[in-house]
Amino acid sequence: GTMGALYWQLNDIWPAPTWASIEFGGKWKILHSFARHFYDNLLVSPYLDNNNIKVSLVRDDYYGKLDFDLSVKVYDWSQNRPIYEHKSRHSSDSFSAQVIYDISLLELHRVAKCSHIDCHWYWVLSVEVTN
C-alpha cells in the first residue's frame, strides 16, 4: 500500500467566497501559496507548551546529517529591528524529530525585557547541507 493525501476543493468554478485555494480564473488565493509547502521535507514548528515556548524540527529526507543555525528574534511592535536575538547551532539526522529550542515564557520575557503582549517573536532557520 501507499500513503497519501487528498487535496479537496482545489479550484472554484465560479466567483464565490469558498474554501478553494485557486480562484475561478486561475489566480492563487493566499491558501494556495501556503499549500505548496504543506508537504515539505523540513518542518519547523514553534508552539507554546504550558508556559514554555518550544521549537520542533521534523526532517523527512535523505540528506544525512544537517547542520543549521536557529535564530530567535524578538521585535517590539513599535520598531522594525529586533530588541533581542539568540542564535544557536544544531544538527540533526535524516528522518528525525527533535525539540531544538525550549525556554520558559517568563525567562524569554526577562531576557528580552518585553512581554508577549508588547512584542512578537520570529524564528529564522539557516540550513547547511554537508556530505
Automatic annotation (TrEMBL):
<keyword id="KW-0378">Hydrolase</keyword>
<dbReference type="GO" id="GO:0006516">
    <property type="term" value="P:glycoprotein catabolic process"/>
</dbReference>
<keyword id="KW-0326">Glycosidase</keyword>
<protein>
    <recommendedName>
        <fullName>Beta-mannosidase</fullName>
    </recommendedName>
</protein>
<dbReference type="InterPro" id="IPR050887">
    <property type="entry name" value="Beta-mannosidase_GH2"/>
</dbReference>
<dbReference type="InterPro" id="IPR017853">
    <property type="entry name" value="GH"/>
</dbReference>
<dbReference type="GO" id="GO:0004567">
    <property type="term" value="F:beta-mannosidase activity"/>
</dbReference>
